[in-house]
Every structure is written in structure tokens, then in C-alpha cells.
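FW: tagging you since you asked about this chain on Friday. Here's the raw sequence from the shared folder, copied in full. Didn't touch anything.
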Amino acid sequence: MLTQTVTVTGYNSDGEGVARLEDGRVVFIRGAARDDVLEITLIQELSKIARAEITRIITPSPYRIEPDCAVYPKCGGCDYRHITYEEELFAKLQCVNDALKRIGSIPIQVDQILHTGQINGYRNKAVLHSDGSSIGFHKARSHDVIPVEHCLLLKDMLNDAIKSLVKDEIKPNRNITLCSGVSGINISYENPSHRLNREKTCQPLEEEMDGLIFQLEGFFQVNTNAALLLFKKAREYAALSKSETLVDLYCGVGALTLFIGRDAGRALGVEINTNAVKIARENAKRNMLSHIDFINADADDDNWMTDISEPDCIIVDPPRRGLSQGTINKILKLSPKRLVYISCNPATLARDLKLMTIEKSRGLENPAGIKVKDPLKPGNYKLKKICAVDMFPRTANIECCCLLIKES
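HL: got it, structure written out here
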């Protein structure tokens, strides 16, 4: 195969290095660092982009370091163990700002990224895979299993639990989920035919955050210390008083609803998962927050809107796909004074901000040019504040927290 020499200028949203080929196409290179001069071999070619592997590092970047993990980069869990943490934070801010400008046409530059400084030993959850001969994580861009006995991202108690897994647990097509909290560790097994649960300590698992105790089941932030930074920022943006009401969409087990809703006169969490709603209500009772309730509903449905018809603040923390057109319309219809948007995907965040902000949404009633059930209404919000939060050090994932204010 032919090789080319390129200079890396930055990073994409997957943590790959970005450079230009001789013909002008953009090329993405896994394991590259900004300012690397590389000899590369193309492994995938499309009309406008390509992907490549590093054949030789001609001039290493000043941000490049020796990886501290024996299975990096074969294991697909980390993306940035070959660069300094300061450079990783630069890459993540670049990713957010690129999405805001390129997708959202939003002029605001994010210059703040909150982080704990702890880049290892922060994860309270891991999902391992078994292929019948070994247990580990999936190889990057593959379902092949890379054997792992110790993961730098995991809390010590989870690594100890990995070592305790016995040979009988190494069965083909089996997923092994390990979770930890202040109350201990739970280990569960899942295969295509049935689910088995083995409890290592107590059930249910609990976590503590800022004086609140949460039962853990289903979705919960995997980095508790960084989640506290995110929750505090969202609480600051929400700025609730006891005379105001809050709606929290995609609330899960209610951690954020309770954390912020304790400032409000009334709060409602909306969650599609029935079991999560049950646990959220138990969490409210456990923390003696009787003014907070939860409803089992899809954020895209109409039924939750009757419970609080005029919220002062709405918080959304959607999955990576972002908000649906119907959910955006419901938010605009309820017209809260403040909207706090938490996102784990800068691309869909930028898209949604473009649709909801007053400067960018005009003329976008039907941005795709197709017939839709619920045409998009023009937004009437202004983006006032935004910051990034590094919830997942050494990976390319990044969280953002935004404050939008209704314009009169």
C-alpha cells in the first residue's frame, strides 16, 4: 500500500487525529497527536474523507506521551492515553466548539471545562465480555475480546472483583456487569437466553452525593465525583427558589431531579423506564423530599404536561441522539423561563440549540423539507451560558451543560 506524510492539526469527536491528504481530503488517524508528523497508510477511503493507520512517527508531537496501559490502543475503552491530560482537555474543548460552530452556527466559544483532576480509578461501573476463553473489553471497532485483568479507569474494588471471577464464569457470549457504590459491589451476568444475578455484597446498591443517598439501578453516572461537578453547575444554572416549579425530562432514578429539585417548591421527574420511576420515588422518600414526584412517561408524550402546566425551569438530559422534534415543541409550548440542557453529544446538542434559540431557528419550521407530524415551532430562547465537564477522562466522551433563557 502507498504511504503518505501528513501533519496532524487537531482531533475529531472520536478522539482520532485529523490531517489533510495530498489531494485535500480529510484523514482520521487513531492514536495520532496534534503536531505529529506521520507516515500513514490508508485503510478506508471515501469521496471526502479517509481513515489511516500510523506507519511511522517521523516527528513526535510535544503533547505525545508513552501510554501507561499494556493493552492500549488495542482495547477500545480509552482514546487519549498517548497524549497529556492537558492536551486531552484541549481536544475536548475543540470538539465542543467545532460542533457549536459547524452544526449549530452558534458564535459562543466554550472556554471552561470542569474536571476533578482524577484521570484513573474513577469508574464505578464496567461491562466486561467473555468469548469462552477470556474476559475483557472489546477491541476498538470490533467485538473481539481483549483480555483484561486490571483496568486503569476502574475503582480498585472493581479491579479486585475482576480478579475474583472464577473460571466457570468464562462462558461464550456472556456479559459481566460490575457496579460499585458506598454500600458495596454488585455483579450480574447476561447472555442471550437468560439473565442471572449474583450479589457480592448488598442489594440494592447505594451511592451518596452531597448529602443525598440514591439507590442505583439502571442508568447512573459512572464518575460520581465528576457528576457532582456537573450537578452543581446545573443547579447553579437552574437557580430555583421555593416559589418555583421544576420539570426534569429523562430523569432516570431521579438523582438530578432530587439534587436540584430540593431548591424548588415543586418538582416533577419524567422517565420512560417504569422500574426507574419506582426507584426514583423511593429515592425521594429516602431523602424526605415529599415535594418531588415522578411520572412514567416518554418525554415525547403529552400526558406529563398536565402535571405541571407552567414550569419555571425545565432540565433535559437526553440520550446521545438528543431531543426529538416533538419534545422540543413541548418545551417551547410550556415556555419555561429557564432551560438547562445537559448533553453527552456535542453534535446533537448543537443541532438542538440551533432549533431552540431565537437567532437561529427562524425559517426552520421544517428544516428537513419533508412532511412531519408535528412541525417545528420557531425557538424563543437565548443561549446564555455553557460549560464542558470531563466526566470520562482518557476517553473521547465529553458532557456539556447549557443555560437558555426565554426571550420576551
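FW: DSSP finds seven helices and 22 strands in the chain.
HL: agreed, and The CA atoms of residues 274 and 287 lie 20 Å apart.
FW: great, closing this out.
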